[in-house]
Amino acid sequence: MNDAVKLNSIFTKLSKKKKPKLLGRGIGCGKGKTSGRGHKGQKARSGVSINGFEGGQQSIYTRLPKRGFKPIRKNLYSIFNVGDVQCLMEAKKIVKDSIIDKELLHKLGFIRSVKSKIKLLNKGKLR
């Protein structure tokens, strides 16, 4: 006997076959006229959702306390460690007595822009 599964032998539930109800196709269809949106008002129109509106009660973003501060002119620093200099010397990308400036750091990929400020941290050791 061949017990191969065929497309016509697979049983699907009736609920999976059920098609969604069409809206606005006359009174007789059950979802006609107002199409389940009720009568008039803002929610009856298209583009229904009112973000943050909670039916007249005080919304959650006004109930919760506002925290912190975002500065307009935030100073963004590129961080560079002393240990990175040692790694560069070990990889022979820089010579021991060479000058390390913004152009060199930008070329090596440590900072994104030559205009950015650099913060030198004391992580790692020079040998």
UniProtKB/TrEMBL annotation:
Keywords: Ribonucleoprotein, Ribosomal protein
Gene Ontology biological process terms, A to Z: translation
Region described as Disordered: spans on this chain: 25-48
Domain of life of the native organism: Eukaryota
InterPro entries cross-referenced by the UniProt entry: Ribosomal_uL15, Ribosomal_uL15/eL18_sf, Ribosomal_uL15_bac-type
The keyword Hydrolase belongs to this UniProt entry's keyword annotation: no
Cellular component annotations (GO), alphabetically ordered: cytosolic large ribosomal subunit
Keyword Ribosomal protein attributed: yes
Compositionally biased intervals (Basic residues): 34-43
GO MF terms held by the record: structural constituent of ribosome
Family according to the record: Belongs to the universal ribosomal protein uL15 family.
The protein, known as: 50S ribosomal protein L15
Organism: Culex pipiens (House mosquito)
